[in-house]
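Quick one, C-alpha cells below:
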C-alpha cells in the first residue's frame, strides 16, 4: 500500500502532539529576565535555573490549546478573512484578471524578468520595513499571474516567500529583527549595513536561480510540477482574460491608493492588523460601489470570499498552538540554554556558524523574529564574546537563521497562511524549498566565516 502524506492540518496536529511529549520529557526552566532601557524584557546570561518541581501538561491540553491559539492569533486570522472578502469583491469586477492579461501580453515572453522584479520587491520590503503578514493579500494575485504564464502555484508562492525570507535574513534596517537584536547586543542601530547589502546579491541570486530552474521545468513539462497529480490546476491550461475597461481602471486606481495608504500607515504610523483590516473593509465598500453590483450582491461576494479562506485561518491557529504548548510547558529557555552552551568552547568561525544553525532550530520554537531576538541575543552576544565572535556577527547569525527558516517552519503562521491561500500542501512545499534552504545555509555559513575573518563589527 502506497504511503499517503497526511493533510497539512494533520501534520500540524502531529507536531502539536510532539511538542506536548517534549514538555513531559524536557526539564522546565527559565532565565531571569530584566527590563532594558527600552522597556523590553531580556534574558540574563548565566541565570538559567531548572524548576525543582515540574508540572506536567494534561493530555487534554492538546485540545484546549487550540481555542486559546485561535484567540492568540486572532489578529492575523480575522485579517485573512477580511482580505478574502475584499479581494473576492475586487476579483468579481474582473479588474485583476484584465490587468493580468495586460501584464502577460507585455511580459509573457519574459517571465524571468517579471518574477525576478517581483522577488526583489518582496525582499526589499522585508529587509527595510519588516513586511511579512502584509504579503498575504498578494498570494492569490501571484498565483493567477503565474498560471497565466503556464506556471504553477509553487512558482508563484516561491517568488514571494523566497523574497520575503531572504529579505528578513538580510534585514538592512528591519525594525522587528535587526533593530531589536542590535539594541539587545548594544550596537548602534542599522550599523554594519554595508556587509548585509553586499550579502543580498549572492543570496538573491541563489534564491532566484532555484525558483526559475523549477519554473523552467514546468514551462517545458507541466507534469514536472510538484502539484501534478494533486490538482489539474497546474497552470498548463489556457487562460482567457477580459478586455481592460475604464471601470477596471477605476477599481485598480482605488485599490492602488488603498495599498499606498496601507504601506504609509505601516511605515509612518505603526499600523497593524486592526488598521489594515479596516482599510481592506474600506476597499471592499468602495469597490462594491464602483462595480455597480448593489449592496446585497457585494455582501454575498464578501461572505463567499471570506468563507474560502476558512481553511487558511485553521492552519494559522494550529500553527500557533505548537508554540503555545511549548510556552505552557516552560521548555523554551531550556532548549535555548542547551543549544547555546557548547558555543563558548568552539573556535570563532565555528562558533559563528554554530550560532546560525542554533538560531535556525530555535525559529521552529520561537517563530516571532523580535521574540527570538529578545530570548536569544542576551545569551548569544556574551557567548560570542567568549568565542571571539563580534556582536555584529552574532546579530548577523541571528538574522540569517530567523529569516531563512521563515520559509520552511510550519510554526510560522504567515507561511502557513500563504500556503493555505495557494492550496499548496505543506509536504509539496517542503519538497520544493528544502534544497534551497540547504544551499542558502551553506552560503550563509561561508559568509559568517568571512565576516569573522575580516573583523565585521
Amino acid at each position: 500500500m502506497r504511503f499517503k502524506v497526511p493533510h497539512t492540518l494533520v501534520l500540524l496536529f502531529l507536531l502539536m502532539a510532539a511538542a506536548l511529549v517534549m514538555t513531559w520529557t524536557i526539564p522546565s526552566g527559565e532565565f531571569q529576565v530584566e527590563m532594558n532601557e527600552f522597556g523590553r524584557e531580556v534574558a540574563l546570561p548565566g541565570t538559567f535555573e531548572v524548576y525543582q518541581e515540574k508540572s506536567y501538561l494534561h493530555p487534554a491540553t492538546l485540545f484546549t490549546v487550540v481555542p486559546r491559539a485561535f484567540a492568540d492569533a486572532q489578529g492575523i486570522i480575522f485579517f485573512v478573512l477580511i482580505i478574502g472578502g475584499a479581494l473576492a469583491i475586487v476579483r468579481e469586477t474582473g479588474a485583476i484578471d484584465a490587468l493580468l492579461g495586460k501584464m502577460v501580453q507585455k511580459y509573457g515572453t519574459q517571465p524571468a524578468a517579471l518574477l525576478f522584479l517581483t522577488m526583489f520587491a518582496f525582499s526589499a520590503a522585508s529587509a527595510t520595513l519588516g513586511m511579512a503578514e502584509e504579503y498575504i493579500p498578494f498570494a492569490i494575485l501571484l498565483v493567477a499571474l503565474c498560471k497565466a504564464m503556464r506556471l504553477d502555484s509553487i512558482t508563484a508562492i516561491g517568488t514571494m516567500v523566497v523574497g520575503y525570507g531572504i529579505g528578513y535574513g538580510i534585514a538592512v534596517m528591519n525594525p522587528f529583527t535587526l533593530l531589536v537584536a542590535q539594541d539587545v547586543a548594544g550596537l548602534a542601530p542599522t550599523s554594519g549595513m554595508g556587509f548585509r547589502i553586499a550579502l543580498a546579491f549572492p543570496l538573491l541570486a541563489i534564491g532566484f536561480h532555484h525558483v526559475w530552474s523549477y519554473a523552467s521545468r514546468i514551462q517545458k513539462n507541466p507534469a514536472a510540477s510538484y502539484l501534478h497529480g494533486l490538482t489539474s490546476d497546474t497552470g498548463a491550461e489556457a487562460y482567457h482574460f477580459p478586455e481592460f475597461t475604464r471601470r477596471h481602471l477605476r477599481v485598480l486606481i482605488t485599490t492602488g491608493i488603498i495599498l499606498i495608504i496601507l504601506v504609509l500607515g505601516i511605515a509612518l504610523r505603526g499600523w497593524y492588523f486592526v488598521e489594515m483590516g479596516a482599510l481592506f473593509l474600506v476597499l471592499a465598500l468602495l469597490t462594491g460601489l464602483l462595480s455597480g453590483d448593489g449592496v446585497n450582491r457585494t455582501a454575498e461576494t464578501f461572505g463567499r470570499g471570506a468563507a474560502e479562506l476558512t481553511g487558511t485561518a485553521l492552519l494559522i491557529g494550529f500553527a500557533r498552538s505548537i508554540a503555545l504548548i511549548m510556552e505552557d510547558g516552560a521548555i523554551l529557555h531550556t532548549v535555548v540554554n542547551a543549544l547555546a552552551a557548547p558555543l563558548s568552547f568552539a573556535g570563532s568561525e565555528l562558533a559563528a556558524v554554530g550560532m546560525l544553525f542554533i538560531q535556525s532550530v530555535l525559529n521552529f520554537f520561537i517563530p516571532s523574529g523580535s521574540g527570538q531576538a529578545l530570548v536569544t541575543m542576551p545569551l548569544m552576544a556574551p557567548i560570542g564574546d567568549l568565542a571571539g565572535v563580534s556582536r555584529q556577527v552574532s546579530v548577523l547569525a541571528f538574522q540569517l537563521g530567523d529569516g531563512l527558516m521563515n520559509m520552511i517552519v510550519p510554526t510560522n503562521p504567515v507561511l502557513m497562511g500563504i500556503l493555505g491561500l495557494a492550496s499548496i500542501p505543506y509536504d509539496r512545499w517542503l519538497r520544493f524549498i528544502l534544497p534551497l534552504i540547504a544551499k542558502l545555509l551553506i552560503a550563509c555559513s561561508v559568509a559568517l566565516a568571512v565576516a569573522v575573518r575580516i573583523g565585521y563589527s
